[in-house]
């Protein structure tokens, strides 16, 4: 009896992708099924970067097809392809950028920047092309955390700027242009102009994801930025204390107001891990982030411990994901990053480049 493609698809329909929760056939990731006598080969094209997962997925799908009686050699080519997804109506995508993820918080000091840089580096580790835009005009910290402090971006044409690079991550920050030791007094229009410049005059080199470290808070600056940036989705960072959650709720509402989907909430500094003995303590109580997610129908993406090493490595210019890639915290960052990428992959694709724009006018 000879093999047919349906048998192969049926076998693969029984395998669930641990990242999407869907089987590989329903998820439309199986392509190019080829049958040569008893031998089978096929491609699996994931919509999210998953370098650390590819081996496991390949073994999983091959094992499933091997269960078909009489099957010979089975080979699978697992790869990723990230495409651009839609943003708010009326806002154009940035050149060289497929998807923008805003990382925001209702107030400063919750670890927004630390989370943003580790998520960006986690996406790099998963094989994506990634940029980080430090839009926190009041306290740019990405140059320091990426070991790029004191460096300046080059300009090839005297107008646009080349992003700097660290650990394979492209980076642009107001911190590259102003002296961080002398705090600047920003007036409203200056802030808007500086942000606009960072956003539109950086030559991002074909990034799958641009992570925007938003200025903390929910004031006018944040709102206008949220309206101008073509954001695919927002991630809210919060700490478990109630007061921070009240602020985080405001952050969530701000994105809702401008029709930016919330990808989920990351709870930072959830439990304290003692650097001496490793024991864990819930200093701020438990479940705050999860309760907030339940209230707003947002996804709880995960929680990071309050851990001395996270701060030390960020301060030292080598964030946890690259400084201690095998640590439990790095694995949490990667799991959250993959989840974010999967959620983006499930969103509607951007069609503005494929269809002429249709203008509806009131007559
Ligand atoms: N999970 C964590 N454990 C320990 N320290 C952290 C953690 N997250 C952030 N920090 C530290 O807390 C401080 C504030 O973090 P930062 O990312 O700058 O906050 P924000 O951008 O929200 O103002 C920094 O010193 C940072 O190193
Ligand atoms: Mg910050
Ligand atoms: Zn202890």
First and last CA, distance: 67 Å
Order of helices and strands: HEEHEEHEHEEHEHEHEEEHEHHH
How helical, in percent, are the residues?
25-40%
Secondary structure class reads: alpha/beta
Question: How are the SSEs placed, and which strands pair?
Answer:
Layout: H1 5-12, E1 30-36, E2 39-46, H2 54-66, E3 74-80, E4 97-104, H3 112-125, E5 130-134, H4 142-145, E6 164-166, E7 169-173, H5 188-200, E8 207-213, H6 220-228, E9 233-238, H7 242-257, E10 262-267, E11 272-273, E12 280-281, H8 288-296, E13 300-303, H9 308-315, H10 320-323, H11 328-345
Parallel strand pairs: 2-3, 4-8, 4-9, 5-7, 5-8, 9-10, 10-13
Antiparallel strand pairs: 1-2, 6-7, 11-12
Helix pairs in contact: 3-11
Bound molecules: adenosine-5'-diphosphate, magnesium ion (MG) and zinc ion.
Magnesium ion is lined by residues 112-113, 136, 139, 141.
Brief synopsis:
This protein has eleven helices and 13 strands. With 363 residues, the protein is an alpha/beta fold. The strands form three sheets. Strands 6-7-5-8-4-9-10-13 form an eight-stranded mixed beta sheet, with helices on both faces. A three-stranded mixed beta sheet has the order 1-2-3, covered by helices on one side.
Polypeptide structure, described:
- By secondary structure, the chain is α/β, with parallel strands linked by helices.
- It has eleven helices and 13 strands.
- The N and C termini lie far apart (67 Å).
- Helices cover 32% and strands 19% of the residues.
- The chain has helices at residues 5-12, 54-66, 112-125, 142-145, 188-200, 220-228, 242-257, 288-296, 308-315, 320-323, 328-345, and strands spanning 30-36, 39-46, 74-80, 97-104, 130-134, 164-166, 169-173, 207-213, 233-238, 262-267, 272-273, 280-281, 300-303.
- The longest helix has 18 residues, at 328-345.
- Residues 274, 276-277, 279 line the site of zinc ion.
């Amino acid at each position: 009896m000879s093999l047919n493609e349906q048998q192969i698809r049926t076998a693969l329909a029984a395998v669930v992708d641990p990242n999407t929760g869907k089987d590989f056939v329903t998820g439309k990731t199986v392509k190019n099924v080829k049958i040569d006598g008893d031998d089978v080969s096929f491609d699996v094209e994931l919509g999210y970067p998953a370098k650390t997962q590819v081996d496991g997925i390949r073994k999983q799908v091959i094992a499933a097809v091997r269960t078909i009686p009489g099957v010979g050699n089975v080979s699978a080519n697992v790869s990723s392809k990230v495409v651009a997804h839609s943003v708010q109506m009326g806002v154009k995508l940035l050149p060289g950028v497929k998807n923008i993820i805003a990382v925001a918080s209702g107030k400063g000091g919750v670890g927004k920047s630390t989370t943003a840089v580790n998520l960006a580096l986690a996406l790099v580790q998963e094989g994506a092309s990634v940029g980080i835009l430090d839009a926190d005009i009041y306290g740019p910290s990405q140059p320091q955390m990426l070991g790029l402090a004191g460096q300046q971006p080059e300009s090839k044409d005297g107008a646009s700027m080349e992003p700097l690079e660290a650990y394979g991550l492209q980076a642009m920050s107001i911190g590259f242009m102003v002296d961080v030791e002398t705090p600047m007094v920003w007036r409203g229009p200056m802030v808007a102009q500086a942000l606009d410049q960072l956003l539109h005059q950086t030559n991002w080199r074909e990034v799958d994801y641009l992570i925007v470290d938003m200025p903390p808070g929910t004031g006018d600056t944040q709102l206008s930025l949220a309206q101008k940036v073509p954001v695919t989705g927002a991630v809210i960072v919060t700490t478990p204390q109630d007061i921070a959650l009240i602020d985080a709720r405001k952050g969530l509402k701000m994105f809702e107001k401008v029709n930016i989907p919330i990808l989920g909430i990351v709870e930072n500094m959830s439990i304290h891990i003692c650097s001496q003995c490793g024991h864990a303590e819930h200093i701020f109580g438990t479940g705050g982030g999860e309760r907030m997610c339940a209230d707003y129908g947002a996804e709880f993406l995960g929680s990071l411990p309050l851990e001395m090493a996270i701060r030390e490595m960020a301060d030292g210019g080598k964030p946890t994901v690259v400084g201690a890639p095998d640590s439990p915290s790095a694995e949490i960052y990667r799991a959250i990053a993959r989840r974010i990428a999967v959620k983006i992959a499930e969103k509607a694709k951007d069609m503005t480049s494929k269809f002429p724009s249709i203008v509806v006018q009131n007559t």
